[in-house]
Predict the structure of 3-hydroxybutyryl-CoA dehydrogenase.
Amino acid sequence: MDIKKVMVIGAGQMGSGIAQVCAMSGYNVVLHDLKQEFVDRGMGIINKNLSRQVEKEKMSEDNKNSILGRINPSTELNNAADADLVIEAAVENMEIKTKLFAQLDEIAPEHAILASNTSSLPITEIAAATKRPEKVIGMHFMNPVPVMKLVEIIRGLATANEVYTAIEDMSKSLNKVPVEVNDFPGFVSNRILMPMINEAVYTLYEGVASKEAIDEVMKLGMNHPMGPLTLADFIGLDTCLYIMETLHEGFGDDKYRPCPLLRKYVKAGWLGKKSGRGFYEYS
Ligand code: CAA
């Protein structure tokens, strides 16, 4: 399975990061979103990231330009017609994802692998929307994609071994460390991370400590780069809530019950860094 052309669906924070690291490793990339303004915003994020590398003298201007030159913007799903790999990083909504995968299944060449960057939705269910479930796989990158080393690779029930190996090799070619996991709610990363974040929100809700104190304990006491409430703001409180709900529904165990304070913040539109306010305020 020779992967040369990669199409990334969704030009948000994750999609643009994935497109960036693919282009940096020499792949020809198509960065796709529904509207031109979304694609432009994604290209803007990539440009800013690469320019910062140039300013720090970690990358030449020529290199930056050739990386940007390898990323082609798209608002036409038909551009998947000659892709070897499609990585979907659209919104976390099963209906949208299954519709998208059914369409991609029709458009993409027979040999193409269809991967999803979903953070918690079942790969097996996404795969069932296609006629090629053996070529569907989870490729879960971490935010910020250009910095974080992990790619959690999720095998769906039907994922073929050679597809797994191709994605493992491809992830290594991106200078990432692939880790194999099976298809269960939240996989490994969010099954462990989100209950910790949710517990931090409960700790705040129950008045055990201030938000700053909770973050400081975990940052300095456990050597985490960010405290859990800062991290929740960084990930997005709506995303955190959605993943907790997926865990709660998937396992049916009350230990995954989302904290009412998390719900309240999301209802208020306090979604974290992206909306200017979450547990903290951002200017
Ligand atoms: N995009 C690209 N590069 C970025 C960046 C971004 N958004 N933010 C920081 N960087 C780069 C900086 O340019 C810098 O690069 P150089 O070393 O080349 O100079 C480097 O990262 C370090 O940045 P800073 O010195 O500014 O800041 P820092 O040392 O505090 O690191 C951080 C920032 C990497 C975000 C760090 O705080 C961290 O690791 N936080 C935890 C992140 C985390 O846990 N991510 C996983 C979230 S969960 C997830 O993604 C999965 C899910 O499904 C929800």
